[in-house]
Amino acid sequence: MKKVLKFIGKTLLVILLLLVMFVLGMTIFNMIMTKKEQPLLKNNVGMLVEVDGKKMNIYSAGDGEHTVVFMPGWGTPSPVYDFRPLYDRLTDDCSIAVIEKFGYGFSDEKEGKRDFDTLVSNDREALKKAGIEAPYILCPHSMSGLEAILWAQKYPDEVEGIIGLDITLPDSIDFESQGWMVDLSKFLSKAEGVTGIFRVLPDELSGWCTKEEMKTVRAITARALVSDTIMREFDGVFDVFDEIKSAPYPKTPTIQYISGSNQSSELWMNAHQAVVDSSDNGKMVLLDCSHYVHHYEYERISEDIKQFVKDLD
């Protein structure tokens, strides 16, 4: 028995040492690659505009009467590449714009508050400076749903529709009892960025990005995962919950897409139903895929958006 325990102990020690060596090796490799990749961050796809003394990147395409504005979920490193499968199918029918908030994509890092009123203010100013005028059809993913709802509440004349891609809403998640998950998400993101583990993990974007573009995506990801600018967005979550709940949900026409991974949550379903019920023309669509619905159901969603745009005319 002692020999068995001794063997198990030695085996676990070897595994631990190998794991430490792997993580250390990845960390050193990531440091080298991050420095080497810095020039790629300057080859922006889109237009850099000055907002509050820093540069924000706005990508636009198409020439339609209506403009669909894509807004990334929290921590999505490269929105311009992330939303491509969806917006590429829309540019013949409408104009599109992709917002890369500070810390994301090719945009600068930013000191100071990253509360949701600030995020909405930055979004509005960046679009205007890029020559993209309201009204907009906002197409937020995940936590950007809070920005979109707040935007429609505060500036209803600027928002003619909301296409929610499995968005976060004030009552969709019990953040107060799951605050540890927020802290864990921040820690894991930082750890992944420092160690460079993301470099050996499969990336869905490789399905529609070229090899050269994937080099840029990895450079952007390396920066985004350790971005304090992005991390600080979580600090304003509880305040925006209260702000949104202090006013009625917008009457704006809406489609709310729900991923398969969230359909079992009563909180999530009820929160989205409330948005649909408040809308003058709203519907909920259940999808059989994971949270990044635009990576899987882009054909279905793009056709729905085209019809949505036609119905606005």
Give a quick rundown of the structure.
By secondary structure, the protein is of the alpha/beta class.
List the helices and strands and how they pair.
Layout: H1 2-36, E1 47-51, E2 54-61, E3 67-71, H2 79-82, H3 84-87, E4 95-100, H4 116-129, E5 136-140, H5 144-154, E6 159-165, H6 179-195, H7 211-224, H8 228-231, H9 237-245, E7 254-258, H10 266-278, E8 282-286, H11 293-296, H12 298-312
Parallel strand pairs: 3-4, 3-5, 5-6, 6-7, 7-8
Antiparallel strand pairs: 1-2, 2-4
Helix pairs in contact: 4-5, 5-9
CATH superfamily of the largest domain: Alpha/Beta hydrolase fold, catalytic domain
Q: What form results from the Cα inertia axes?
A: globular
Report the CATH architecture of the largest domain: 3-Layer(aba) Sandwich
Count every beta strand, where a strand is a DSSP E run of 2 or more residues: 8
Class per helix and strand makeup: alpha/beta
**Largest β sheet strand count, sense and barrel closure:** 8 strands, mixed
Radius of gyration: 21 Å
**Mean of the pLDDT scores?**
91
Query: Which range best describes the helical content: under 10%, 10-25%, 25-40%, 40-55%, 55-70% or over 70%?
Result: 40-55%
